[in-house]
Amino acid sequence: MMTTPTSERQTETGGGSRLSRAAVSFRKKKKQTSEEDNKSPPYFGSIHFKLDYDFTSNKLACTVVEGKEFPAMDRNGMSDPYVKLYILPERKQKFETKIKRKNLNPVYNETFLFNIPFNELHSKTLMLIVYDFDRLSKDDRIGQLTLPLDSVDFGGEIDEWRDIEPPIEEQDQEARLGDLMNSIPATACRRKSAREKCPHMSRQRRLV
Prior knowledge:
about 210 residues; alpha+beta; Immunoglobulin-like; 4-stranded antiparallel sheet; calcium ion binding; repeat; C2_dom
């Protein structure tokens, strides 16, 4: 009876082990891919808004009603959200809601009026951007809602909930800076030159 040399048997065994490891690795990768495919996309909350166009005055009324399940942006597990609104592409008319402190489900019920001639509606896009207010640094962008107005039927009032889109990079410095001047200690003011002044900075909510 012929026997397989020891060296050959070891090689065959080693090859089998390598094949087994490769098969296990393939199954793991396939499982990971399947799990990733089954994962739902990130959720950034949703926003409830209303739109109504007045054909007589050529004004678009946009009401920010409320937000739901906004992500927590602060260490305390909460956010201080507000919504900024403007019309693309000009961005000349800008509005923003009040800040709702420590709230992931804020209620606003604030209405803003945009002057838009009816024959220009089809070329405009409404932007609603949700920010988390930060007193000491740049406000965090939670996400946004982009609504081309040519897709809206203005035959009656629009009343909808929409999911917030993932945040995009700021290219135009739309986010406000926090009230940095409020955080300047009195000692820093005293160090200024006698020719300079350190006026009391009252909190002002302004657009950049």
